[in-house]
């Protein structure tokens, strides 16, 4: 039997004795969207007579094409420029509807051309969501016409800390290099269209009300100390400078979101919600007044109120709110999709509270963590997630009931770029861990890690062809 190296492996693949001889396996294959398959299912039948790809939708047909292209790589040359294609039957459908990757372009800006390559990588792995982390303390990356200073000021920082940040660190050494950049609306529309052509939804994230220091540097009136001129944050960690909870700030954010919604047709929009300290709200007369008006017990509860206010813009446009798992603790809207990042257990809590959940736990799918010995690996944030651990990741916690398990709508890997200055570093941290992740997101049969490695080795050539860096096995 020939060596077939499809990644992620299809749910069902059967090989038969015999070959189909053809000059052009891709051009000669018959393709059909049919009614008797569900929207996500596809089939491939290769007989001595030819190849037929059928699918329940255009998206699923695209998946059939991707699998088929990998399958016919096993064809062997015969006479007259023809090839002999192995006979095969594939019946396939993904386990999850949300099979994502998050790319942080705030900590380090990534060129548009590289974002398009990342989309190619996602398509190669039959993943379907690019979660685009567009704003953070260290940079604002999306053009907003109503507020040009968000990019004029917020997209640039004078310099960046050197080395790894330690807990509680307050003194820094800087690199002396201005860093920044942003995407124009036209560039973002190009990214969205490029992704859509490949069956991928770009979910924008505007992280709020914390992680907003770049915006507050651009518009100090958004902060709790409007008299202070902040800089775009040149080091990592969690900033206490968060948005204030005034009506004018709510309106500001709503205007921003309306522009974001115009660019991104995604049914889902991510409003962050992670790591939002409430110390400034506790100290602010205005925030305290708001807390009293709303009858809230603690300043931290203002986060839920603020998010609900600005999320009205999403509801008006029929979009779903997505948020990091802290949102569960802030009385967020019940229909919010929760992205569990602090641990898989946070996903359990969110599902038990009735939320749909995307499992993105840091202990399994944070690809900014080390993947080998820190002594020999490039500087990373910490942790240790080698390839085999990703391969062994199970997105659905066993302790959930069947009803709760159905709320796990998908899974996502994360690339936070504090310690990745550009495409080369991102590629190294992302791949091939993303290939292992894609197997779990798709629901590929788990044979053994060795079996996976056997398919992965030839698969690396496909990644290389896309011009993306990866960590050699
Ligand atoms: C996160 O890693 N702060 C979502």
Automatic annotation (TrEMBL):
<dbReference type="InterPro" id="IPR029018">
    <property type="entry name" value="Hex-like_dom2"/>
</dbReference>
<feature type="active site" description="Proton donor">
    <location>
        <position position="275"/>
    </location>
</feature>
<feature type="domain" description="Glycoside hydrolase family 20 catalytic">
    <location>
        <begin position="96"/>
        <end position="443"/>
    </location>
</feature>
<dbReference type="InterPro" id="IPR025705">
    <property type="entry name" value="Beta_hexosaminidase_sua/sub"/>
</dbReference>
<keyword id="KW-0378">Hydrolase</keyword>
<dbReference type="Pfam" id="PF00728">
    <property type="entry name" value="Glyco_hydro_20"/>
</dbReference>
<dbReference type="GO" id="GO:0005975">
    <property type="term" value="P:carbohydrate metabolic process"/>
</dbReference>
<dbReference type="GO" id="GO:0016020">
    <property type="term" value="C:membrane"/>
</dbReference>
<dbReference type="GO" id="GO:0004563">
    <property type="term" value="F:beta-N-acetylhexosaminidase activity"/>
</dbReference>
<comment type="similarity">
    <text>Belongs to the glycosyl hydrolase 20 family.</text>
</comment>
<dbReference type="GO" id="GO:0030203">
    <property type="term" value="P:glycosaminoglycan metabolic process"/>
</dbReference>
<dbReference type="InterPro" id="IPR017853">
    <property type="entry name" value="GH"/>
</dbReference>
<protein>
    <recommendedName>
        <fullName>beta-N-acetylhexosaminidase</fullName>
        <ecNumber>3.2.1.52</ecNumber>
    </recommendedName>
</protein>
<dbReference type="InterPro" id="IPR015883">
    <property type="entry name" value="Glyco_hydro_20_cat"/>
</dbReference>
């Amino acid at each position: 039997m020939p060596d077939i190296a499809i990644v992620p492996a299809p749910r069902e693949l059967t090989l038969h004795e015999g070959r189909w001889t053809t000059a052009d396996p891709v051009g000669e294959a018959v393709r059909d969207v049919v009614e008797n398959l569900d929207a996500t299912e596809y089939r491939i039948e290769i007989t001595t007579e030819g190849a037929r790809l059928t699918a329940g939708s255009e998206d699923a047909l695209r998946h059939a094409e991707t699998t088929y292209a990998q399958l016919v790589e096993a064809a062997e040359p015969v006479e007259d420029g023809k090839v002999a294609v192995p006979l095969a039957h594939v019946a396939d459908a993904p386990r999850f509807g949300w099979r994502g990757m998050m790319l942080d372009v705030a900590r380090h800006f990534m060129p548009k051309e590289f974002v398009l390559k990342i989309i190619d990588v996602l398509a190669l792995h039959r993943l379907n969501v690019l979660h685009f982390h567009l704003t953070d303390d260290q940079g604002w990356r999306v053009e907003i016409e109503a507020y040009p200073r968000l990019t004029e000021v917020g997209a640039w920082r004078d310099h960046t800390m050197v080395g790894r940040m330690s807990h509680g660190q307050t003194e820094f050494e800087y690199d002396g290099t201005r860093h920044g950049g942003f995407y124009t609306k036209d560039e973002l529309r190009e990214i969205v269209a490029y992704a859509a052509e490949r069956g991928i939804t770009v979910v924008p994230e505007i992280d709020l009300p914390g992680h907003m220091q770049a915006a507050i540097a651009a518009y100090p009136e958004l902060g709790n100390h409007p008299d202070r001129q902040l800089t775009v944050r040149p080091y990592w960690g969690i900033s206490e400078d968060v948005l204030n909870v005034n009506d004018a700030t709510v309106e500001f954010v709503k205007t921003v979101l309306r522009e974001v919604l115009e660019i991104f047709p995604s049914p889902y929009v991510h409003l962050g919600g992670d790591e939002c300290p409430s110390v400034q709200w506790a100290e602010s007369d205005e925030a305290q007044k708001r807390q009293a008006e709303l009858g809230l017990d603690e300043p931290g509860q203002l986060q839920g109120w603020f998010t609900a206010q600005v999320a009205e813009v999403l509801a008006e446009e029929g979009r779903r709110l997505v948020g990091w798992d802290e949102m569960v603790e802030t009385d967020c809207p019940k229909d919010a999709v929760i992205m569990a990042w602090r641990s898989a257990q946070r996903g359990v809590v969110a599902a038990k509270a009735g939320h749909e959940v995307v499992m993105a736990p840091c202990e399994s799918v944070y690809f900014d963590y080390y993947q080998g010995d820190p002594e020999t690996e490039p500087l990373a944030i910490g942790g240790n997630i080698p390839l085999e651990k990703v391969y062994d990741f199970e997105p659905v916690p066993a302790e959930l009931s069947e009803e709760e398990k159905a709320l796990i709508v998908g899974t996502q890997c994360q690339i936070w770029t504090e310690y990745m200055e550009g495409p080369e570093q991102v590629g190294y941290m992302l791949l091939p861990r993303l290939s292992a992740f894609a197997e779990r997101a798709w629901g590929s049969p788990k044979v053994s890690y060795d079996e996976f490695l056997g398919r992965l080795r030839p698969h690396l050539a496909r990644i290389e062809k896309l011009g993306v860096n990866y960590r050699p096995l």
